[in-house]
């Protein structure tokens, strides 16, 4: 009996074909992504001293949750029917409000490159940061690919441009963590 209280919500989330997904679901998923961006950014803002393995671990945990939330948003978008005009507007607004937060987070990650250079007990976490950035970019691309066909008209035409801008920002950050120098 107790297991059913836990399994029912999990099964509801795991079987999107049984439940209609719509613009509100996508907007809610974007909101969750945004809250995860805030969590990573806030933790990054406390990452000020070298060899701070504890904060680096917290950043890793939040980053993993962020990437999972983006992948979940992609699943929600994939399971959704094409959006109505009002849903498109709400989703487009949410995405446009999300983009500066993505840019801010990526700038903040790059600004903390020196701390990542000694984050793991004095050793560099840069390869891990690079991998996390690549995984997050892949998730963002999957979300963009899932959302674009649900849009129409000008929204559908603008979506690849926004994805391209986000990819360019990710590529800049990844490049910073691709160099051998920790600084």
Mind summarizing the main beta sheet? none
- Overall geometry: elongated
Listing every helix as H and every strand as E from the N terminus to the C terminus, the arrangement reads: HHHHHHH
| Number of E-type strands | 0
Q: Please report the distance between the alpha carbons of the first and last residues.
A: 55 Å
Mean pLDDT reading: 89
Protein name: Cell wall mannoprotein
Pfam families: HsbA
Organism: Septoria linicola
How does this structure look, described?
It contains seven helices and no strands. Helix 2 packs antiparallel against helix 3, helix 4 runs parallel beside helix 7 and helix 6 packs antiparallel against helix 7. It is elongated and about 50 Å long. The N and C termini lie far apart (about 55 Å).
Produce the secondary structure layout.
Blueprint lengths: L1 H13 L8 H22 L8 H27 L5 H27 L1 H4 L9 H22 L5 H24 L7
Short structural summary:
It comes from Septoria linicola. This protein is mostly helical and 183 residues long.
Features:
Cell wall mannoprotein, 76% helix, 0% strand, mainly alpha, single chain, elongated, disordered N terminus, Cell_wall_mannoprotein_1
